[in-house]
């Protein structure tokens, strides 16, 4: 039988989800439990993809202070005055551990205009208006133009944006790997559900070994 699910090492990209200061730092206004413990693994993956010159896309949220672009489950909070990942604030920035240059800053107007911000060789930031990394974003077209068939996903708050992004990627026929220890909030039940739709589940160490074997073979 034809294998449509196995990840392809020579056509792989990394997508980080909501790896932003407001969601990860302990004093962040929307800090997600367990996110800090996933940061070292997210950092290792990001560094490995840079060394391989493989594409990386960091997908972020940006909430306008009037709530006009905010998903419904968070809109009332923002309208009532809570400030989370607001454009131009330090809280909307990627955590330093994932940046190629810690001085790099998000360009909100560029992202909100639906464009990708290039922050390094084959590395970009993209804005997502909803939970999924693929809803009304240029990411699918961008990755397929690069010849990508396989995506590795890591990031913040498994039950919301990462899981939504996995299902959206499945609908777009991407092969997928979820970095199980580089994501916060994952549950055994949730991971098993994703495995049922063909998502490969790998801890970071196994993923790094898989990626290095790709280079050795080349």
Helices, strands, pairings?
Elements: E1 12-17, H1 21-24, H2 35-51, E2 56-60, H3 72-79, H4 108-112, E3 117-120, E4 123-127, H5 139-145, E5 150-155, H6 161-171, E6 175-183, H7 188-195, E7 200-202, H8 204-217
Parallel strand pairs: 1-2, 1-5, 2-4, 5-6, 6-7
Antiparallel strand pairs: 3-4
Helix pairs in contact: 2-8
What order do the strands of the largest sheet run in, or round the barrel if closed?
3-4-2-1-5-6-7
Which regions contain 5 or more consecutive residues with pLDDT less than 50? none
- Broad structural category: alpha/beta
Share of helix, binned: 25-40%
Write down the overall geometry: globular
Taking the sheet with the most strands, its summary is: 7 strands, mixed
Total number of strands: 7
Q: How much is the average pLDDT?
A: 95
Q: Tell me the span between the first and last alpha carbons.
A: 26 Å
């Amino acid at each position: 039988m034809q294998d449509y699910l196995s990840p392809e090492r020579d056509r792989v990209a990394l997508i980080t989800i909501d790896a932003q200061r407001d969601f990860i730092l302990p004093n962040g206004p929307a800090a997600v439990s367990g996110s800090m413990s996933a940061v070292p693994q997210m950092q290792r993956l990001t560094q490995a993809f840079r060394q391989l010159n493989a594409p990386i896309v960091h997908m972020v949220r940006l909430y306008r202070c009037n709530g006009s672009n905010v998903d419904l489950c968070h809109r009332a909070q923002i309208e009532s005055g809570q400030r989370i990942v607001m454009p131009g604030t330090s809280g909307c920035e990627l955590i330093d551990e994932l940046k190629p240059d810690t001085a790099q800053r998000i360009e909100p107007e560029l992202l909100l205009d639906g464009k990708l911000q290039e922050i390094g060789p084959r590395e970009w930031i993209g804005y997502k208006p909803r939970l999924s990394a693929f809803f009304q974003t240029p990411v699918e077209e961008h990755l397929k133009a690069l010849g990508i068939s396989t995506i590795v996903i890591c990031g913040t708050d498994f039950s919301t944006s990462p899981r939504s992004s996995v299902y959206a990627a499945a609908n777009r026929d991407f092969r997928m790997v979820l970095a199980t220890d580089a994501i916060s909030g994952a549950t055994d039940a949730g991971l098993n559900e994703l495995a049922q739709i063909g998502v490969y589940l790998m801890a970071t160490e196994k993923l790094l070994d898989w990626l290095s074997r790709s280079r050795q073979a080349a």
